Amino acid sequence: MSAAQPEQDFHAGEMAAQQRWNTAELWDTARRQRLLWREIPVEFHSRLEAAPYFFLATSDDTGRCDCSFKGGGPGLIRVLDSRRFAFPDFDGNGAFMSLGNILRNPNVGCLFIDFSDGARLRVNGTARIHASGEIVALFPGAARVVLVEVELVVPNCNRHIPRLSPDLAGVGPASGETR
Q1: Which of 33, 39, 91, 166 has the fewest Cβ atoms nearer than 10 Å?
Q2: Inside any domain, residue 26
Q3: 85, HSE (Cβ side, Cα atoms, 13 Å)
């Protein structure tokens, strides 16, 4: 896994907050290498592909935000390589809030939480929507697929994550059912 570059790790607002609340000194080179990655480590690929859901944060070109739950059961995510993953867009309420935002601003944040052990992984990147081609063929029945180019991966500790056990019976891309 490759660590983020120091000058690119944090924007001015994040650095100001770290200074204000006395955490800037925590972010030495070793911590940055341990917690700020530019790719998804291979050992996380199968975990992401087994994820039955994740949370997708988007915003439009004026900064108006949206966060949505993306579900579909294991197989929802396909890791193409350490710098790219894809997921299908299932028709929901027809508002296309996430996709509409991606059309205006491709920056996305994805939060993966495994409530069985509390593991969390944040993946930020840029997204593109595909309506045809090989990428869509990865998800039979999907009208559209979102491809994410990874820019930053941040593992989080499992503190404060409740332990839950989801009932995934009948849920999955193959079944066409979502909850």
Answers
A1: 91
A2: yes
A3: 31
Number of domains in the chain: 2
Query: Do 150 and 82 contact (CB within 8 A), yes or no?
Result: yes
Q: How many CA atoms lie within 13 A of 1 on its CB side?
A: 22
What residues contact residue 110 under an 8 Å CB cut-off, 6+ apart? 54, 55, 56, 57, 122, 123, 124, 125, 148
pTM of the model: 0.83
Residues 112 and 152 in one domain: yes
Instruction: Find the CATH number of the domain harbouring 75.
Output: 2.30.110.10
Distances (CA, A) of 129 to 17, 48, 73, 101: 34, 20, 21, 11
pLDDT tens per residue across span 92-109: 788 899 999 999 999 999
| Beta strands 119-130 and 65-71, pairing class | unpaired
**Cβ–Cβ < 8 Å for 46, 64:** no
Range of the domain at 7: 1-36
Cβ-based neighbour number of residue 78 at 10 Å: 19
